[in-house]
Amino acid sequence: MTDTFLRLPAVKKRTGFGRSHIYNLIKLGKFPKQINLGPQSVAWLESEVSDWMEQRILESRVNATKTG
What is the per-residue DSSP string for 36-47? Predict the structure, then answer.
């Protein structure tokens, strides 16, 4: 399996969220947890962020169908 690490600026750009919101979602268990790359370096797996985004889209579409 080949995967790509995404650093925080890339995660922010892909999700449209700011740093503090991303970390709050992680704390609540609602966003993929970062991977420690070193003492002061973290990243996210691109596949996990993509899966999370796909799930949000599916949930949004299901909820829109139920209320619409």
Answer: EEETTEEEEEHH
Rounded Cα distance, 55 and 38, in Å = 29
pLDDT digits (tens, 9 = 90+) for 4-53: 999 999 999 999 999 999 999 999 999 999 999 999 999 999 999 999 99
Which residue is it, tokens 């999700």? 15
pTM of the entire structure?
0.87
Q: At what angle do helices 46-67 and 8-15 cross, to 10 degrees?
A: 20
What are the phi and psi torsion angles at 48 (to 5°)? Answer: -70, -40
Pure H helices in the chain: 8-15, 19-27, 46-67
